[in-house]
Every structure is written in C-alpha cells, then in structure tokens.
Fold this protein.
Amino acid sequence: MLKYICLSDQHAGAQMSLLTYLGDPKSGGADMQRVSPVTTAFATALDGLLSQQSDTPQLIILGDLLDLQFSDRTDATQSAIGYLSALTAGGRLDKTLIATAGNHDHALWTDARLGLDSTRLVHPDAGASYRQITPAFEPDPSVESRLLTNLAQASGFDAVDFRYPNIGFGDKGRAVFLHHGHFAESPYRLISKLRDAMIGTKRQFLTAEEISTENAGWLDFFWSSVGETGFGDESYDLYQHLLTSAGFRTKSARWSEGISEKLSEMLPLSGNLALRQGLNMATRVGFDATLGMFIDTERAAIVEALTTEGWEGLRWYMDGVAKTQIAEELGDNVTDLTFIFGHTHKPFADRLVTDACKAPVKVHNTGGWTLNGPRLDNRSGAGMVLIDHDLNVVSVDVLGTPQNGEMHRAAVVPLRDDTEGAVAFANAVRQWLAMSAPLWDDLAKAAKTAYDIRQKILLDLTNPDPTTRRNAP
C-alpha cells in the first residue's frame, strides 16, 4: 500500500537543525559524524511504523537536506550521512533515493548541470548537455549530482533519482506534483523580476525552465554557497543572527559600519564624516534589501501555516509552472491533483482553487526540522507525507514546537477526501501510528530537549556579553 515517504528541510549541518549533533565544539568535524538524539528517535519510530506493513517504500527528499548557505560543507554532509544511514539501517526502504534540491542545497543541482556539460565535452555523442530542468514525471538517468550520489551511497542507498525543480507521479487522470517550495516566494525569483523591469515587460507566469534558468546564479550565490566564501565564523554567526530580528539588526549594523569604514578609506575625501555616514546608510539598505528578505519569508512567519501572500505565491506557481509542465508531460486529462512542498517548515494540509486543475488542488506541506526563532509558541514543526500505490496522499504531523511546555504526538493531518481509497489509506496510517505510538512518544521527548537547547542558543544571541554566545549546553 505504501509507495513513497516524502521528507524535507533537514538542514543537516545547521546548528538550529534538530538533526544536527551538537557535540563538543572543540572536537572538530569528526564529531559531526555522530547522530543527534532526534535522528535516532525518528529513525526508530519510522522503522516501527514501516514494520506494520509489507511494502518497501521509496524515500523522497524534497530539498534542503543539506544546509549549505552558512554551514560548513563537511559538517553538513557528515550530518546528512548520519541521518540517512539511520533511516536505512532497518532495511525497510527501497535502495533508490528520489531527491530534488532546495534553495539551501541548490549546489546539488548546479553540480548535476556541470556534470552533464563535462560529459558532453568528453563524449559528444552521449546526448547529455547542460540544462536547466529535468522532466518531472520520469527519471532522467543522465542527470546525477555527484555529491548527492556519493552521500546517498555512503548512507546505504544504491542510486539516486534526481529531478529539478519538480518531481511528479501520474496515473489514470491522477497526479502528485512535488516542489521544494522556494520558487513560490518572490525573493527566490528576484532575477526574473529584475529582468522584466530592465526590458520593460511583465510576464504573468513563468515556465519551469524560465524560472530555473534566470534564478540559478542568484540561488547559488547567496542561498547555497555563502558558507564557502571565506567569511568563516562570521557567516556562521550571521546565519544564527538572522533567526532573531534583534540579532539581525545588531549584526547588520556592525557589518555596515565595518564595510563603510573600509570603503571610505579607499575613496577620496577619506576623512569626510558625511561620506562615511552615507556609505554606512547605503550598506544598511543593501543588507535590508538582500539578507533582510529572509526575515519576511514564509519560513519566518510565526503563527500562520501560510500567509495570504504565501497562498497567492502558491497559486501563482500552480497556475504557471505546474500547469504548464503537467500539460507538457501528462496532457490535459488530470482531474485529481495533489501538490506537495516544503520550505516553510510548517506542516499542514488544505485545498487550493487554481487553474492547474478543475477540482481544488490538495496541498500538503512536509514541514521542517529546525527551530526558526527563539519563540516556541509557533507553527513550526516537522512532517512527512505518505503516498500509496494509487497516489492517495496522507500528511503526518510528526512533531512541533512545545506548546506550553508540552509536545504533541505524531498524528494524521485531517483533510477530507471522500474517495474510498483515500479514506482507507488514512485509516491505515492512523493504525500504523497507533501500533508504534511509544516510539513516537520517545521522539517527542527527544525533540523537546533539542528545542530547549536551541532556544537557549538563540536567546544568547541577544545577550550583550559575547562570551555567552554560540555555547551549546
């Protein structure tokens, strides 16, 4: 019955990820190979759930497995190997991993594109060439992210089915369409907006190829490679400061002062106070226009699963990118459509009226495994989306931030679906969760401790005493 398990936003390597092991900071990169208590508890609970049924489902990683924006690449990959190895240890998953890239690990897709181009140069008749997207609804064996393949094979998988920016499954008028979720938000298609402004046009929608082509460099430059730019601890500290408004203002003010001072020294009239103040102001505006966008994204929203602007962005993506690609690859006969995305770190299930399908689209979010800010009374949490052989879909709310100090047990997210197959699948998942309930309770306890530790780290960022910062309990 169970065909696919979809997870996302592990952010391996990021300090705020519950799946990153927080060990002795003096132990170096080798210490990152140890798995976190949350990883161990989740792998055990998932194995307990899978033991209730006989299928060997495929795991789908829907982006941001690795946190490459401000995290050290070695830390991120070692943490991801520990996580994936824990999931495969029970032997209940298919040996082929299905994956796509998110904004924080977009470098995986860049690696795949460059690999295609290098193959073409050596083997001109191979048919492989640099490209901007893959098919969504079928594998492309020529596409391989070498980093992801090696990481997966080190974790117990044999192969990776890598697709970007969308993954799809379709059968008999029913389709499931999956995307990490970043392109539904305007900051991640910034270059497309600038292009339209420069040439004096305004495109209502973009295709998958247009949105990927035009914004790939922007994603690589800021969202997926800052950790390699040589900023060292400064980039690490900046990432943590971005998770608090006060922390961001403190960090951006200090960086702006330093940058404006250096620039004024290299320009004529270096002693001019007005010049230095002007440079400082311009630098602050620059930080607000780039890094400041992070604070205003859906991930940073506190109490809503998705804001009004978020729903509009989702509808824009479905009416343009999704509708076009589904029609090109499946035709116009899809009457039952489900959309799965991550990115926002807030699991939910709902319906959305779009032009992509005559019936309302069933929308599921996979949540995320990080603490997004010092407040614990928010909608953030981790989920997983389960898909059966008939493409029925069920969301499970795995864990969330403590509410009044209490953690909830993993449960099916209700979404009314009157089809007989969908109801039967949801009831089966509820039964699997009930049979493995003690294991999910253990996960909740481990997550509560992990959230408390990371909350303390974030609160330390607003402490004026710098000696208290970055010290994990």
Notes: The first helix runs from residue 37 to 50. Residues 6 and 60 are 5 Å apart (CA to CA). Residues 229-295 form one domain.
